[in-house]
Design goal:
The structure is a single chain. With 332 residues, the chain is α/β, with parallel strands linked by helices. The protein folds into two domains: 203 residues, 3-Layer(aba) Sandwich (Rossmann fold), CATH 3.40.50; 107 residues, Rossmann fold (3-Layer(aba) Sandwich). The chain has nine helices and ten strands. The strands form two sheets. A six-stranded mixed β-sheet has the order 1-2-10-7-8-9. Strand 7, helix 6 and strand 8 form a beta-alpha-beta unit. Helix 1 crosses helix 2, helix 5 crosses helix 6 and helix 6 packs across helix 7. The longest helix has 19 residues. The radius of gyration is 19 Å and the shape is globular. The mean pLDDT is 97.
Length: 332
Amino acid sequence: MLVYPERLRLANLPTPLEPLTRFPLNNSDARIWVKHDETTGTEFSGNKVRKLEFSFAEAKAQGCNTVITCGGIQSNHCRATAVLGARLGLKVHLILRGEKPEMAEGNLLMDYLAGATISYLPQREWRTHPEFAGQLQQDYASKGDKALFIPIGASDEIGLWGYVAACEELQQDFARLDLQPDYIVCATGSGGTQGGLTVGSQLFDLPGQVVAFNVSDDAEYFDTKIREDVTLWKQRYNVDYKLDKLQVKTIEGYLGPGYGVAEPPVFEIIAKAARTEGLFLDPVYTGKAFYGLVSELEKGDAGALPGARNVVFIHTGGLFSVFPQQANFRFD
């Protein structure tokens, strides 16, 4: 029996699993089901909340009154951390990649409103962010505070539990709906959601292969990162899991110019999903992954998802990052 570590119940769970009924697929009779993890909360919505339930529990267990984390300027994870920190009465210090913008929009605006302290680290210095976080921890300690560092996306052996637990929820969803999906699909940016799903699907014997569309880095990076996280998770929590069972599948080709930068087809499919289903995606994570999913389904068995009849798409949130990129949408 799987024994979970301490967690804080922060997310609105379980989230709905529902089929799309009007979104058009060309040359495909596959059915897309959406696991609506964008509804885990409102101000702190998205996949990161599942992970942060365990990360914040760890901060409390260590007697921390501060958390430090990092990400892009429009990081969903940083926004969720800032808001949850405010709700839990903890200080939050964010390290954001890039230069301070003239105007705070989207997730960044939420960070400031939630009272987070923000440090900006230029792209050329980003590789030093773990050392920068360590210095901040020392600075807080000198003031009598204790800070826990949560890595990008809460993607480590602690945060991995978030989507291991989500697989138990999916097991119940599939039983209730009598659903046998061929694939479980997500976006992957820091690897934690993909890693948790990959391990959890095996632990709970879920049908369907877990596949992810990368929105940063490449397939080799995610294979290495997830194997490292799972190894640490197994060691730290003494979980009965055979590492040779781990199969990490990442579909490349939809990253576009780079992280956080999307091309016109992604914006077009975001608008189409909103118009046909009231489904709101974002141009950083879910829009790219959904565009990749639809593109591969429309290739049929020649694509990367052969034999797909029922596919579960994990909607990991990201609504607030749409607004800073609104100029990229075109409406007649």
